[in-house]
Amino acid sequence: MKHTEWNIVFHTLVGLRIHVLLHPDPTLRGLEGVVELETRRGLLVRRNTGDTSWVSKANAIFLVQLPSGTWVVVRGEEIPGVQPERLRRLERYKGVGWLVRAGEKRRYTWRQPTREDMQ
């Protein structure tokens, strides 16, 4: 399945470029690199210099670069657990998960979004 802004939370983040916008730890703000490992509560990010850093998902906001080159804003609360757990959660809720983002409902599905999904 193709990575899109609508289904990124159900994909694995390993191998994607990531930029930490906001984080409770001020030393991690602005960190940029490639995700090496994803755990339930954190990400191991390898910087361009070669060193690695653990970044917790809780209370963080990330910019994730899709393979197409576009950047997507993802809250840490949207990507809890590892990818198989997120897929099981999607299956349990019969293919649709709702998250409230900035006062609007955002719908995540297995398919490409339609106009009514975005309203």
TrEMBL record:
Signal peptide bounds: none
Gene3D superfamilies given in the database record: Ribonuclease P/MRP, subunit p29 (2.30.30.210)
Keyword set, alphabetical order: Cytoplasm, Endonuclease, Hydrolase, Nuclease, tRNA processing
Gene Ontology molecular function: ribonuclease P activity; RNA binding
Record carries keyword rRNA-binding: no
GO CC term, one of those recorded: cytoplasm
Ranges annotated as spanning the membrane: none
Compartments reported by the entry: Cytoplasm
Top EC class, one word: hydrolase
Catalytic activities: Endonucleolytic cleavage of RNA, removing 5'-extranucleotides from tRNA precursor
SMART domains: POP4
GO biological processes: tRNA 5'-leader removal
Taxonomy, superkingdom: Archaea
Protein's name according to its UniProt entry: Ribonuclease P protein component 1
The species this protein was found in: Pyrodictium delaneyi
Encoding gene (name): rnp1
